[in-house]
Each structure stands twice: as C-alpha cells, then as structure tokens.
C-alpha cells in the first residue's frame, strides 16, 4: 500500500491565482512469487489505484468568485472527500478506481513481462496492454517494453528502453538466517 504524490497545491498557469491539487493517489497491491527452481520464477501482481483529489464542480458559494468551492478545500480535505464526492453516488465513486494486473517470468538472467491497465469508460476509458523483456547481470539491467492501447489512443502508448544499475551498499552486510 502506498500514498504517493502528496504535497501543497500549486498553479500550472503563470497568470492564474487558482491553486490546483497535485495528483495524489492511493495504490493497494499484491504480488505472489513462485520459485520453480533457482533458475525459474514467475510472479503475479495486481494493483488497485485511486486518484485522491476532489471531484471538480462548478459550485461557487463562498470566497473568491473566480475559485470554485472544491478548490478551496485543504489538501487533506480534498484527499478525504475524494472517497464520497462523485455526483453519481457510490457507484460512480467505485468507477474512479483503476486496476492493473501483471505477470513476470524469469529464467536465469532473462525476464519476460506482460501487464494490463484498466480504467472505467466514464473516467478516461484507458485500456492498456504492456509487454517487455529484460536482462540482469552483475547488477546491470536492460529492459525494453511496449505499451499499446486496446481502445482509444493514449500518450502512454509506445516504446520504452531502460538501463539500470543496482548499487550495492558499501561495507559488511549482515547475514540473514533462512
């Protein structure tokens, strides 16, 4: 479980006095790893993710006439209200959740992955399928992946290449008993 991207409101337009929420979100996930042997493993993962910002509205009853009421909530009030402020009630609130599923298979130093991301049709309708391969050797990693859309085009669609290095801590490491 993780709550990410919490912080003060900011403005995205230089001349504007309207402060906007950062896209804070709550992620709850689970993963199951099965080791067939030292050389073969498979992992199954799933995540439920939810944006923790208030639902925008055009209601303006208090304060500055240029700032809508939902924008006047504090960051914490906005995060908490995001669980029950959908105009369509609990059903619409439930539709604001996003779901991801993934599978990773590892054979020695070669890794293959596939994953799916789903968003409700009334809340963006993004449906993405990603696949990738990677290698790991002596702390060095190289990954290539592709994300494609199953419905409407998305800016998330395309190729990605990642190089990584696993920095080992310096000094004597504690020995863990199994």
Summarize the structure.
By secondary structure, this protein is mainly beta.
Characterization of the model:
This protein has an 8-stranded antiparallel β-sheet with strand order 1-2-3-4-5-6-7-8. The chain has 178 residues and is mainly beta. The longest helix is centred in the middle third of the chain and has 7 residues, at 75-81. It is 7% helix and 43% strand. Strand 6 (127-137) and strand 7 form a beta hairpin. The mean pLDDT is 85. The two termini are 26 Å apart.
Q: Order of strands across the widest beta sheet?
A: 1-2-3-4-5-6-7-8
Mean pLDDT: 85
Radius of gyration equals 21 Å
* Tally of DSSP β-strands: 8
Determine the fraction of residues in helical runs and give it as a percent range.
under 10%
Q: Please indicate the count of domains.
A: 2
Query: How many individual helices?
Result: 2
What's the overall geometry? elongated
Strand content: 35-45%
Give structural attributes.
single chain; mainly beta; eight-stranded antiparallel sheet; 2 helices; 8 strands
